[in-house]
Design brief:
CATH architecture of the largest domain: Alpha-Beta Complex
Number of helices: 4
CATH superfamily of the largest domain: endopeptidase domain like (from Nostoc punctiforme)
Radius of gyration: 19 Å
Number of domains: 2
Largest sheet: 6 strands, antiparallel
Structural class: alpha+beta
Strand order of the largest sheet: 8-13-9-10-11-12
Helix content: 10-25%
Strand content: 25-35%
Length: 241
């Protein structure tokens, strides 16, 4: 297994960071810019922390990337050894930490926040659902079917709700909704509209969502990209099947 060897100056940096960690709360590192090192090839940005997930663009070798948080995912062997740590970028996508020079081995930043698991497990995990949606980027096939689209992403055949608004109302009655704070990854994000049917997307983390009706198709935007923001909820589909 490749080993990430530390040059003497790098070891000093790591030692300094370790001392700092003794007087800081674990997992409180803020977003920082680090350098991609692939020895030439572009680094694939993925929709979830795993090599299995949908590719979502790339960053050039030598580019600086803004890492927001880290999380464990699939194991990858890269420039800096073998690791299951993935870095979430400001765009919302993930890259393997084995191709990013951070001066650290393993998880050292804040772990990416995820929504709580729903009372009834979905067939697809949050990461699987988000990856499925990324595979449909640019599609107009689900316009007007936002709640159905989210149900399909999480592995259901139908949502069991009349609309996104009734879905929100149902989850609110179960105590699964939140009206403050940035929606964590995997949370359902809801909006009201003039027709009373509402709208729903899913959070990919770092303040971004993916869903239908983002400039007329499946796309990515900031979570409050449209008016009528209601809040976010645990990804529960109580009546789905």
């Amino acid at each position: 297994m490749p080993v990430r060897l530390l040059r003497p100056w790098r070891a000093l940096v790591v030692a300094a960071v370790a001392v700092t960690a003794l007087v800081a709360t674990a997992g409180t590192a803020s977003a920082t810019s680090y350098t991609v090192n692939t020895a030439g090839s572009p680094l694939t940005v993925r929709s979830a922390p795993g090599a299995w997930s949908t590719a979502w663009g790339s960053v050039s070798d030598g580019a600086s990337v803004n890492v927001q948080c880290q999380v464990h995912g699939s194991t990858v062997s890269g420039t800096y050894g073998t690791s299951d740590v993935w870095d979430q970028l400001a765009s919302g996508g993930f890259v393997s930490d084995t191709y990013v020079y951070t001066g650290h081995d393993g998880l050292f930043m804040t772990q990416c926040p995820y929504a709580a698991s729903p009372p009834r497990a979905n067939p697809n995990s949050m990461n699987e659902a988000i990856s499925w949606e990324f595979a449909h980027l640019g599609s107009t096939a689900y316009e007007g079917e936002c709640d159905h689209f989210q149900a399909l992403a999480f592995g259901w055949s139908y949502s069991g709700e009349y609309s996104a608004q009734t879905h929100w109302n149902h989850l609110r009655s179960l105590g699964l909704t939140h009206t403050s704070g940035t929606p964590p990854r995997g949370a359902l994000v809801f909006y009201s509209n003039s027709s009373g049917t509402g709208h729903i997307t899913v959070s990919i983390g770092v303040g971004k969502i993916i869903g239908t009706s983002v400039n007329g198709d499946v796309g990515v935007a900031v979570y409050n990209y449209r008016s009528g923001y209601l809040g976010w909820a645990t990804p529960d589909f109580p009546n789905a099947g």
